[in-house]
Amino acid sequence: MKKAVLLSAIAVSLSTLPACTTTEKVAVQQPGDKTLTCEQLEAEFVKLDNVMQDAQGDKGVNTANVAAVVFFWPAAVGNYMNAKDAEELVEKRRTHLMSIYDSKGCQ
After folding, report:
1. How far apart are CA 37 and CA 106, in angstroms?
2. Among the listed residues 22, 19, 33, the one whose alpha carbon sits nearest the alpha carbon of residue 85
3. pTM of the entire structure?
4. DSSP at 29
5. Long-range contacts at 41-45 (CB < 8 A, ≥ 24 apart)
6. Range of the domain at 55
7. Distance between CA 41 and CA 102 in Å, rounded?
8. Is the CB of residue 98 less than 8 Å from the CB of residue 36?
9. CA atoms of 106 and 35, how far apart (whole Å)
10. Count of structural domains, the chain
11. How many CB atoms lie within 10 A of CB 90?
């Protein structure tokens, strides 16, 4: 009986691992930002768009969040907060890079 309970607990624990999303978090300022060319800055904007899309997907209804609600609801809240933090960092980095982009006269 104890073995069955232990195995069930392990199965539930393992099934909730994918419930945690891993939205990439970016540093607002990075070494070398001011030396980036206009083309490199534009490539950074594309990367930021991708991170933002991932973060928005992690906030919505997805397999990870549904599993989190079913098995351990605080994980769903954590996923939402993690994605929200990532979005805020993306916006701050975008603003930082845009000021460099503008100061270089990029178009």
Report:
1. 9
2. 22
3. 0.64
4. S
5. 41/97, 41/100, 41/101, 41/104, 41/106, 42/101, 42/106, 44/93, 44/97, 45/94, 45/97
6. 2-103
7. 11
8. no
9. 13
10. 1
11. 24
